[in-house]
User: What shape does this take?
Amino acid sequence: MASRLTFVTGGMRSGKSAYALNMSRRIGQCRAFIATAEPLDHEMRARIARHKDERKDEFDTVEQPLYLAAALSGTIQRRDLIVVDCLTVWLNNLFHHFGPEDPRTAAEIAAFVSVLENRGDCRLVIVSNEIGMGMVPEQPNLRRFTEELGRLNRLVAQAADEVFFLVAGVPLAIKGRVYAAL
Assistant: This one.
């Protein structure tokens, strides 16, 4: 497989993570999973545990809620495939910890995009939500988040060799081809 960057997007609970994992099991041998979620409450702790169970011992897990570029840079040289799940949670973490106007937020996003552009031979599979297809949020902070995630998703999609949009568990190829029987 010639492509080196795959972007998987879709709505909440559309099957993005499962698709990314199943595809990754077929194309990588030395795999890592970079998880961006923070276990801030019972629901998120249970969700994280469920996701860990789904990966079993097939992926080495790196948990990094804020410094994604550094985690990628530190992992790229040691793996042939890395799954990042997910950019939506990561951007939310940056907004929560630093704020949307803080220069650290913009710096982390720029560093992440730079790693995408300079990833060497490591295959990346990146997961993110598509949240901009509904109503425009009334609250300014939610509008800002939606706009920033849309911008981030566009940057990743432009750099990607393959882009898949998941609808009700069904992958639609936006760029590239769908992998059968995933």
Notes: The radius of gyration is 15 Å.
